[in-house]
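Quarterly update from the structural biology core.
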Amino acid sequence: MAHRKDFRSFIKGLFRDIDIPLFAAVAAISLFGVINMYGIIGTGPVLTKHIIFVLVGLGLMIFFSFVNYRYFKNYSFPVLLFYFLSLGLLVLTFYSQSIRGVNAWIVLGDFTLEPAELVKLILIILMAKYFSQRHTHINQFKYIAISGIYFILPIIIMLTQPDMGSAIILSMIWLGMILAAGINKKHLFLLLIVMVIVSYGTWMFVLKPYQKDRLVSFINPQADPLGTGYNLIQSQIAIGSGYWLGNGLGNGSQATLGFLPESHNDFVFAATAEQFGIVGVGLVLAVIAFIISRILAIGRAAMSNFGKLFSIGIAILIFAHTAIGASVNIGLMPITGLPFPFLSYGGSYLISLMGGLGILQSIKRYG
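Predicted structure, tokenized:
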């Protein structure tokens, strides 16, 4: 009896002072992600790894909720150390195995790490710290320019890999956080002009012809149905076949028979729609919207500017991955190769995201 009471006290201690609705929503959609993955690929090492990633991620979320976020807020050395270590890992991708023509992963046997996912979280922490300490000087352009240096270094590496998807996400995070910090309209207009020029230069001088073909194939996938347009066509067929209620768990022929490429990763949204229909993916999007609303609620209640800015950064991260992932699968955007939150296979993104949510829970716990 005493052991049972001690166990209950231990469990209550784990969840005391955190946002229970947020944790419950994340746990629920993660569990659905495991079930959904089983329906897509069946049993095997990929499903086993995905389950491990989910369990480790939830564990990290609880662990980081006990790590006082003020260590990130008050001390520059650990934040800058993690930042430059993440840049070093990005550079190491050039010396690792290329996957589908992209050097975005560090591959060591069966272990695969995508440093860009770590960089996204580190940039959110760094920008929240930087702007929380300089919010009264935000109208001075030099502070925007300095933040831009932290942002542009990983962007250059990502564009060289090339990993356009991660570069877009990082750009949205940085731009969203400087907007939240209170940048004035003149400086914002100047930044937008610079970003347009950089985007044009990337298109003209960085991207290779096959990468340009991949980006524009979403406009008319039927022009090359067996080449650049194949993935999108199969994705649209999968979504259409699911209709309102879907074909049922494990009954998505596009995914299970191998017609839909990367059905467990880049096109997991389409595979989910094939199994559970429009209603199913609608519920998934509703849960993600609820998670974002809880994140922003924690930010509004935070006592520090760091907490407010960090919550905005995490909300942007989840929203951007969701919006772009769904748009790519439907055919509203070019294929970018980004994971869909909580559903896609991939430990780097899921564990980084769960770590970020753990820091957010720490903000809720410690105020």
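The chain has one domain: 20-366.
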